[in-house]
Amino acid sequence: MKTEAKKANEDLDRLLRQKWMSGTWRLNREERPLDPATTVKPHLWKWADIYDALLQARDRIGIARGSAERRAIRLVNPGMAETEMTSHTMLFAFQLIQAGELAPAHRHTMTAIRFILQGKGGYTNVEGQKMVMEEGDLILTPQWNWHEHAHEGKEPMIWIDGLDVPLIKALQVISFEPYPGTRIPVKDSPHLAPHYGMTRPVASTSEALPRPLHYHWRDTHLSLRHLAEREPHPFDGVALEYVNPLTAGPTLPTLSCWVQMLPPATRTQVHRHTSTTIYHAFYGSGTTVINGEPFHWDKGDTFVVPLWSWHEHANRSATEDAVLFSMNDAPVLKAFGLYREEGQGESHIGL
Ligand code: GTQ
Ligand code: FE2
Description:
The chain is of the alpha+beta class. It contains five helices and 22 strands.
């Protein structure tokens, strides 16, 4: 039997609802958790499945202006089936382009990164800056930059696309524009000729430097090898962040990219943080334990560590290095004072 008071409360709730209002006393415990709660699920995709999907798409999906502009397979988090995103903030996809093909130019408010996995002779053109892709390179496409991909080589090129799509969607500022012409003209001044490190051809008439959008694997690898001679980071192993050399800040305003090496038979300690990370095993094999559940990975496998989940990484090989490329949303959390991190001491992985 309803009490008078309860009925009065329900009447009030109904009245408020009719006027597009609601009383905060109706919030339940689930909406006010002590610990951040996420719908993102830890998950691992096997390379064999990703590669098979790419090969099937290669034979079926043509890319051209007006039809499919990109041949990419995205990783759908089992907790985000409706939106088909990889996490609540990020999208991870694998793109394949064949020799002679053009992925036509466009721009969008979403920011993208490419991490090159296979092939030779492909390039991406960002605002006229032509960047030839080599395995292990990281290439950035900042938001609202015109970009296209083309391939002048022989074997198919495969790379990772990482984007901040769900974040930009949540902010409701998605904007997408096809390029008005057919091709983005390549800027061909001497200062854009391929060169490495902090040098500029003397013939350059420009004070400008090429924008730092291309991180070459040979540089990354050398840095990793030198860092490996030092004590590894307790939670992250031999870890590097790809920085923006102009700001000394993260890779991009919304996305940070990392590469980390786990020397043979080493493991990291357990920790958790409010950022979410998507990892790709560039080479080697290991095990990542996420909230007590082991995820075994080999070359090419890709997995998500959701925010605030305890995790640790181990290299399963006693002889080979393992290298993980990853992308995280920490810059967003840090920008708003929402980044938190907790360590839990010793590893739980027995080797
Ligand atoms: O290559 O420009 O996987 O715009 C998704 C959206 C790739 C791209 C994706 C994109 C691209
Ligand atoms: Fe794009």
